[in-house]
Amino acid sequence: MTTQRIRELNDLLRTTGLGGQVFLTAGICALPEAEQAAIQEKVQTFDDFTEDNDPHGEHDFGAFELGGEKVFWKIDYYNRTMDAGSEDPADPARTRRVLTILLAEEY
Question: What is the pTM of this model?
Answer without folding.
Answer: 0.95
